[in-house]
Design a protein that fits this description.
alpha+beta; six-stranded mixed β-sheet; elongated; 4 helices; 24% helix; four-stranded mixed β-sheet
Length: 221
């Protein structure tokens, strides 16, 4: 897989198209600032003549060996993940054409493991890695409840994806509300239907009133 750091562009993206552009376009290739050198004709032709020197050839070879998934992160947290359908080089920069996998929501919000994460002082915005970690996240146990998606991760963490403008209340023992772990609650930008959201919010209000009524009865008894 290829991991790209969109920490600068992602906060500025306001639409789905802007977010797609931030993920797919303009990624640097090592060696583009070095002079061209003579190479055997059959070598640069591997990439349509894009590789002009050994450094570019090495970097393109490395990238092409990982062209399955494109994972976008900000502050080492996954903000999007795509399937790479096509790639090309424009103006000495790498660009992708991607599609959205059905399991995207199960990965968005996950934090990169330490061996893949950007460290302090590390500035190059693109990395390559084997897809083992991503495969493990995708294989998490997933349940869909209304507009919510609940993932039980291999480490026992419960990851909840929320529909837009909705809320999350966690319940402990004896039906007592406890604070929600909001860092694990990620809004799904593709969620739809205001009517469904209003129904969910109404159900939460009913539940809260029931809890208040039960609490009052316990105090009175």
């Amino acid at each position: 897989m290829i991991i790209v750091n969109v920490g600068r562009s992602w906060p500025k993206a306001q639409s789905e198209q802007q977010r797609t552009d931030a993920i797919e376009s303009g990624w640097p290739i090592r060696g583009t600032n070095l002079p061209s050198v003579d190479m055997p004709e059959e070598v640069p032709q591997l990439f349509g003549g894009k590789a002009r020197n050994g450094a570019m050839l090495e970097d393109l070879t490395r990238l092409v060996g990982n062209l399955d998934f494109l994972v976008a992160v900000s502050s080492n947290v996954v903000v999007d993940v795509r399937i790479i359908d096509h790639w090309d080089v424009f103006d000495d920069r790498l660009a992708f054409k991607t599609s959205v996998p059905s399991w995207r929501a199960s990965v968005v919000g996950e934090r990169l493991p330490a061996d893949l994460a950007w460290q302090r002082g590390e500035s190059w915005p693109l990395k390559t890695a084997e897809s083992y970690w991503l495969d493990d996240v995708i294989k998490t146990e997933t349940v869909h409840v209304g507009g919510y998606t609940v993932h039980l991760l291999p480490d026992g963490t419960l990851h909840v994806t929320l529909p837009r403008a909705s809320g999350l209340v966690t319940v402990g023992s004896h039906d007592q509300p406890v604070p929600a772990h909001r860092p694990h609650a990620v809004r799904d930008p593709d969620a739809e239907a205001v009517e469904e959201l209003e129904t969910e919010k109404a159900a939460i209000r009913v539940w809260e009133k029931q809890q208040e009524s039960r609490a009052m009865k316990r105090q009175q008894s």
